[in-house]
User: Fold this.
Amino acid sequence: MDSLQDPFAEARKKCPVLVTEFQGETIPMVLRLPELREAAKDWQTFSSNAPRRVPIPSEETVRSVRQYPIETNPPEHTEYRRIVEPFFRRPLLPEVKAKIDALLEHLLDVAAGQGTIEVIQGFAIPLQSYALTYLMDVDEKEAETWISWGTHVFKQGDGESKGAFMEQYCKEMFEAAEKAPGNDFFSALNQVDYQGRKLTMEEKLGYANLAFAGGRDTIIQTVASIIAWFGEHPEGLEFLRKNPGSINTACEEFFRLFIPLTHIGRVCPATTDFHGFQVPPEGRVSLGWFAANRDPDVFENPNEAKLDRKPNPHVAFGFGIHNCLGAHHARAIMRGLVTKLAQKFHSVRILSQEPHVEVEKDYRRSSGYQKLEVSFVPLQV
Assistant:
């Protein structure tokens, strides 16, 4: 299934929202960028104070804790977010960015040396896992455990028991950091002062849950989608070799097009008219990030990759107070990846592919890959 197709094109022409069903719940999904931004800013009407119900499908059966700070509203959200922002800004530090670039160099050299590589298991998961150790400032050896969790810490294979395993791992990391504190993510959360008290274990686990789950499959699938796009468009590598100043712009375009997250939920505390649909108290609405990123009234030729697209007001990292904490991390990884691909390789050969297709009642869309086998063709020296 073509990742550049837009399954919401016809529905968007008719109405700003698509009323559809998820897990037996009727939910209106907003499809246009202006209406999405308006809803995302209105946290009083469209609340994130809904533990385990912000993701769609909900995660009420696969995790036991609220994710912090994403599943809170102001003013608590502001305080909770401030606690971990220093870690999520670490990819802006030159020494951390250098580690990410060195990791990319190593993984790409290994991949090229092997001749062929399966991108998901052999490249994207190790890249995401080792890069996360730099963000959390923990020993690289922890990445080996995280690699074993696969593409998604909740949705692959064993469901509930897999989420419980990750929570137990995090609890043990917090307990170990109590005995031997350092400068890492776990130690910092143990030591932080929040409103004159220490964080509870539930709060700390909620932060860790978001760190491990929130940016895992999104990073993995964006990496795979970028590599696959270059496989289909070798002229893109040539363009970026000639125009290295367009690397950042190209990455923003990739974020817009290849957002793995179709949408995210908000809960209405009171009965709410949402573009003609009556949402009952505690009912949910869907912010359709993917659909908004293809809004033809905002993006000219929205299903085409324009590596020099400006302006590009995409919402791949959300909008409003809940904009993605991991945006700096994602940008550091993708900018480094695209730079290295353009510098090292003439082209990418796709040998086999198995797209990941998201199937719901009223749409089907490609949101990445189950498997992607490629070979990298080096530049001739």
